[in-house]
Specification:
This protein is 4% helix and 45% strand. By secondary structure, the chain is mainly beta. The strands form 11 sheets. Strands 1, 2, 3, 4, 5, 6, 7, 8 and 9 form a 9-stranded antiparallel beta sheet that branches. It has a 4-stranded antiparallel beta sheet with strand order 11-12-13-14, with no helix packed on it. A 4-stranded antiparallel beta sheet has the order 15-16-17-18, with no helix packed on it. A hairpin with a 3-residue loop joins strand 21 and strand 22.
Length: 606
Amino acid sequence: MKALRPLNRLSAVAAALCLATTSLAMAQLDTTPPSAAITSPVPASTLSGRTLGTISGTAADDIGVASVELKIARVSDGKFWGGVAGWSATAVVLPASFDVGLGTWTATGQTPWLVAGDYTITVTAKDAAGNATPASATVTMPLPAAAFISGNLVIPNAATQVQSSGLSWDGSKLVGAALTTGSIYKRAFRWSEAGGFETLADLTGGTAYSEPYAMSADGGMMVGFASSTDSVLLDGAGVEAARWTGPATVAGIGDISHVVTGDPFNSRLFAVSANGAVAAGFGSYKHTDNTTRLMPVRWTAGGGFEELGDLPGGGLSGDSRGVSGDGSIVVGYSNAAPDVIGTSRAQGFRWTQATGIEGLPDAAKSFPGPAVDRKSVAYGISADGSTIVGYFSEGRESTIVSGNVVERRTHAVRWTAAGAEKLGQLTYSTYYSIARAVSGDGKVVVGMASLGSGVYDAFIWREGMGIFSIKGLLAPRFDMSKIELTDATAVSADGYTVTGKGNGPFGEFIWVATLPPVPLLPPDPVVPPGEMLTATATFTPKITFAETYVESVKTTTESFDGETSTFREVVGAGTNSATLVACMAGINLTTSDGSTEVLVVIGSFI
């Protein structure tokens, strides 16, 4: 009997070919596509929280599911979500993980923050034979909630210094600073409607002084500056850039590399990327003339400070103020070559790794004849990187006296690929407005404008609609008679929630408002002198009042189209009592006579 021989090379190749042919035949015989379904979010549901939340579902196949892919489309314009890249006109396939044992899939990429509207999620399950079955679900993000009311902020030192600096992308959290008991310097805090005010930790060894300026998309990480062992506090200078990863956890991140040994740090961070890994601000250094100069910087968790340079012809000084959502674009201002008068001028810039620092174009002049002493500053950039905001300022040549411009106009500006666009003024008697912040898609801008005589008013500008006083938008619904909203400093990614600073009988206060997508009552049109006014309709709200008095608190109930709003005011309760204004029914207020509690007072109405 012959012994069995091992397979030779030819036999092995034949066996492999047979196996491949069998597998191919089996694949060709598989014509049944997998099934797929979306379970979260629930199809045809109305969302909450400004996000899609967890996107997940089920998939099954008689042989096996090979892959799961999904797409997210915005119905209003047909664009697709591309993760960090934002919204795209071309379809973008997003990743999803599939659990074979459970037969479930879950989206693994970054999901978008949503503005009001409909969104379609399409999931496609594929098997090894290439069979595919798409399933889709359309969900709706409603307009913002009917009210956004904050809690109390205790400011013992007469409520004279408060600051609201940044918002999370969904507008639910803000960062700012305020005076605290026994201190002459501001202390950093984080606020949320759910958690109230949380004091942020100080750096070791410094004076109790800190100010945060921005927060990550989810509000979990904050950047700013604080006093530390390595800084000397001199009128707000000599502080160290700081990064908070929670209220109790803070780290100083030093200064730029060529700070002279022994010199105090003077570095600050004013902006941060969506995930908190990239920040922008300035570092300082001693110039050859022995003066301290500021250098715009970009900071990364892995690489530390990166100096961005300066524009040609300037004085080697500048500051970074904004960063795109993915951290790739930085904006701010740098000293540049002078414009007719002076030794240099501030000019807004845009920086990327590929292009380096580039000056932003000037806006069109508004003076007859040559414009002189032009200046610009970029304060913010949209998350998608498409839009930069700030201001452009120009002087009238005929008003130069002893080398100084007497007449100047300052315009809130939006820079896009099309150039610099002036956003307008709330009154053209002063020509002074500044854009502070911009929504994620660049279509909503907020800031402040002068009304003359030292009075300032917070504004919101919407693409296709123009500029509006925020106080004016809220006045038809809420009692704004005793307060001024002097500045709007930050806006949520969807452009609905705004925060800023104001003044009232109780001193300075911080406000948060969720604004309607269209004006409640269109204000009188504001146009430059000499332009034609168009006729507008007038509207008079139908309001009835019922007043009651309880101890030293005056309560006014207002009925408006079947809904009730309640306003409470402390009356005759001493010089330190606060005037409190609350909006919407069901808000339970408590006041303490003799304290300087300040209630953040703005609500919203859709």
